[in-house]
Amino acid sequence: MSYQLLPAYYTTANTRKKKKPKINKDKMLIEMKKHNKDMRRIRAFSCQFDTVEEYISYRFGNKKIRKNNNEFKPHVPEERVVKSDIKTSNTVPGACPVRPKREYTGDYIVGIATMHKSNSVPVGRKTDPKEFATMRRG
Question: Cα separation of 44 and 127, whole Å?
């Protein structure tokens, strides 16, 4: 039987009122002590409870007004002290001159050889040309 063919009073929504759980104060006291001990262990001192009633309201999801011991204090930066003994200058430097272009003017390099995978290598006067002919790295 499909739900489309059933009358309106057949529903899957739970319309019954939920029963409140029975509260055992002795059990809650033990749980509260364990909770407080765990909060001390992780240094969350503001999450501890003073009374069993506060713990029960926390445990069953009732709203609880937490006491706020740590009020917000905005950070006010200290004023900076300007030291007059530091020497400064008000002049702005001019544009930098262009570097002279570097050109090779010596006679050590004889030419350029091609090694493995089109790798160009400078050839000097004292290097052996057989190294480049075998195409091996030295």
Answer: 75
Name beta bridge partners: 113: 121
The whole-angstrom separation of Cα 13 and Cα 94 is 82
Q: Which residue ranges make up each domain of the chain?
A: 22-66, 106-138
The DSSP line for 48-117 is --SSHHHHHHHHTT--------S------PPPPPPPTTS----PPP-PPPPPPPP----SSEEEEEE-TT
User: Hey, what amino acid is at 48?
Assistant: Q
Q: What is the pLDDT along the chain (138 residues), one digit of tens a residue?
A: 565 677 777 777 777 888 877 889 999 999 999 999 999 999 888 889 999 998 988 888 876 555 666 677 888 888 877 777 777 777 777 788 888 888 887 888 888 888 777 788 888 888 877 777 777 665
Q: Phi and psi dihedrals of 110, rounded to 5?
A: -95, -40
The whole-model pTM stands at 0.37
